[in-house]
Amino acid sequence: MNLIRLVTLFIFCLSVQIATAQDFVSSYKPKNQTEKTVLAKLKALPEIKQHYASRKNPKPDIIIARPYSQSKYYCFQVGFDYGDRFGTNYYLSVNPKTLQVYFEDFSDESRSKSITLVQWRHWRSNPGFNKPHKWVNGN
After folding, report:
1. How many domains in the chain?
2. Would the pTM count as exceeding 0.90?
3. Does residue 115 fall inside a structural domain?
4. What's the CA gap between 44 and 35, in Å, rounded?
5. Could you tell me the residue range of the domain that residue 33 belongs to?
6. DSSP symbols for 58-123
């Protein structure tokens, strides 16, 4: 009986690890041309270049989450690797078909909202952007 519980626990832990697999962009090897293109698009963004140039310790990095059944986009956590944890500064996502980049706005009062990179660049310098707010018709 204990052996069955142990095997069940092992299988569960393995499945959770596989289901939540995330990789650091700094060491990630693209699996196909689409991933190469998406990563090139991400790395070419001025915000990402500035992120990597901002400091060396803690190490700037990005976590990549590949598309899966709940999301058709590549999702990225931009932040710093502290060794024992990752501190996320912001989230981006990229549509692999259009290469449109989105910023995940968690300050939207109604829910998390994806806004375009153009909208983010326009609104992030507004003092009210980091306070609770609500997007209405893209504004």
Report:
1. 1
2. no
3. yes
4. 14
5. 22-129
6. SEEEEEEE--BTTBSSEEEEEEEE-SS-EEEEEEEEE-TTT--EEEEETTBSSS-EEEEHHHHHHH
